[in-house]
Amino acid sequence: MAYEQLKLENQVCFRLYTAARLTMGAYHPYLDPLGLTYPQYLVMLVLWEQDKQPVNDIAHKLLLETNTVTPLLQRMEKAGWIKRKKGKEDSRQRIVSLTEKGVEMREQAKHIPECLSADIIKNAGSAEEIMQMIPTLDKLIEGLKQTEK
Amino acid sequence: MAYEQLKLENQVCFRLYTAARLTMGAYHPYLDPLGLTYPQYLVMLVLWEQDKQPVNDIAHKLLLETNTVTPLLQRMEKAGWIKRKKGKEDSRQRIVSLTEKGVEMREQAKHIPECLSADIIKNAGSAEEIMQMIPTLDKLIEGLKQTEK
DNA sequence: TAATTTTGCATCGTGAACGATATAAATTAA
DNA sequence: TTAATTTATATCGTTCACGATGCAAAATTA
Fold first, then answer.
1. What is the pLDDT of residues B79-108, one digit of tens each?
2. Residue B63, CA: closest nucleotide via C1'?
3. Residues B126 and B95 reside in one and the same domain
4. Fewest CB within a 10 Å sphere: which of A39, A125, A141, B135?
5. Looking at residue A19, which CATH number applies to its domain?
6. How would you classify residue B80: left for phi > 0, otherwise alpha for psi between -120 and 50, otherwise beta?
């Protein structure tokens, strides 16, 4: 194999890495007014879908380690959007729940998915092309997720 | 619009974010023995393709800010893979060049692209599907890159 | 030429990510 | 029941990623 393959442009991973960074950047105009970061927004999505979950469930849904999620939740608690209470059945668990403020934020964040979709489609050309990536990304994620374990 | 759209699963961005993280993780078995992180490996690729470049050129090729790249380069210099010297024509510039050690590493890293490609294809099912994402990712990156400016 | 603006890079602060390690509670095995 | 193991979460250290700011050199303008 020649050194050709080493060329940056040939790499899929660099594109994923870059696309992910830039896409997260595209959330800024919508998340900054709410004071949320993108990972924090993901946590809010998880909690808006189902309130009162242990740290582990949140981490699992986001495919993140608890040592990433714990400090994230600590900052979010400090911001007043969530609370963390010891589990009753299993006292090792910390049950994360939305505060009043966290529940209300849902209304303000309601429009974000359409905004983002519009921005991405505008930038990438067509919605179909973007949609076509989803099953491939899912397979990739599923495969790599297993590999980690 | 219903709250449905807020659901995590509907989001492309989450998949990009996750796929990028996991793909970077897939580099670990190959980069750890060399002592490189993935962003550092990207810098090496840039320098292996063309030695002696100012910080700005490297940052530009990686679509990163200089305030990300500068500390990255400082750590790489400390590790002994690169040197940073003041530019002769423009003394504001810092010309980054490979050390002997950095040049030699190229040989050890030679096989990484094929290994990664194999891993990704194994995980995602088919190479074609992965390849099909590239032009879409490129359009997305190009579009979002403009938006930032 | 002197003053202003721009450019290239560095520094600082904050928030992820994550490997390694710690700790207490729960579970299982002896 | 006691001991060993597993589980849920937290803490620590390192490395990105990036907004904000600083600074000196270069380019531009007056």
1. 999 999 999 999 999 999 999 999 999 999
2. D17
3. no
4. B135
5. 1.10.10.10
6. left
Cross-chain residue pair B15–A134, CB shorter than 8 Å: yes
Q: Are strands B82-86 and B53-54 parallel, antiparallel or unpaired?
A: unpaired
Task: Say whether residue B56 is in contact with chain A using an 8 A CB cutoff.
Answer: no
> Are B96 and B119 part of one and the same domain?
no
**Do the domain assignments include residue A130?**
no
Asked if residue B57 and residue B6 are part of one domain, the reply reads: no
Q: What is the model's pLDDT at position B67?
A: 97
**pLDDT value at B149 more than 60:** no
Q: In the predicted model, is pLDDT for residue A39 greater than 50?
A: yes
> Does the pLDDT of residue B1 top 70, yes or no?
no
Q: Give pTM, 2 decimals.
A: 0.93
Structural domain boundaries, residue B23? 1-34+111-149
| Chain B residue with Cα closest to A143 | B123
- Domain end (from B81, B100, B119): B100
Torsion of CA B32, A140, A67, B9, to 10 degrees: 160
Measured in whole angstroms, how far is the alpha carbon of residue A117 from the centre of its chain? Answer: 15
- The residue among B13, B27, B117, B134 with the most chain A CBs within 10 A of its CB, best to mutate, is B13
Say how many domains are in chain A: 1
Listed as ranges, the nucleotides of chain C within 7 A of a protein C-beta are 7-13, 15-21, 24-27
CA of B117 to C1' of C17 (A): 24
**C-alpha dihedral (B67, A112, A61, A139), degrees to nearest 10:** -80
| Domain membership flag for residue A85 | yes
**Whether A13 contacts chain B with CB within 8 A:** yes
Contacting residues 89-108/A vs strand C (CB within 7 A): 89-92
- For residues B27 and B59, state if they share a domain: no
Tell me, yes or no, whether A83 lies in a domain. Answer: yes
